[in-house]
Amino acid sequence: MSGVQEPLEIKFRLFDGSDIGPKKYAPATSVATLKENIIAQWPKGKENGPRTVNDLKLINAGKILENNGTLADCRSPMYDLSGVTTMHVVVRPPSSERGTEKKALSKQKQNRCGCVIL
């Protein structure tokens, strides 16, 4: 095996089953760069698209990839890298929706009855 690492061919599977890619990336490519590419290539007709890199989670082989990691870091020797690697994309809800969910949950907790009838 030579010291030169071949580019990895990756496609991104979106939540509705559609794909972005495949496209070749160098092993030194950061996960944050992958997320920026996903945002740039995001289909225009889809609702709830990501706005920032932090709105996306990338999952590869069951692991959530960190923004500061590289493709070389997340490679597994158990997988055959000669084909296309599929990474799953999860979009976090906008922060305004996340805040209302937390408020609703806290209200539910406050409205619980603590009565005991013997």
UniProtKB/TrEMBL annotation:
Its main location: membrane. Pfam families: Rad60-SLD_2. Residues 8-74 form the Ubiquitin-like domain. It is found in: Cell membrane. Keywords: Cell membrane, Lipoprotein, Membrane, Methylation, Prenylation. It is a lipid-anchor. GO terms for cellular component: plasma membrane. The keyword Cell membrane applies. It comes from the Eukaryota. May serve as docking site to facilitate the association of other proteins to the plasma membrane. This is Membrane-anchored ubiquitin-fold protein. It comes from Phoenix dactylifera (Date palm). The gene is LOC103709259.
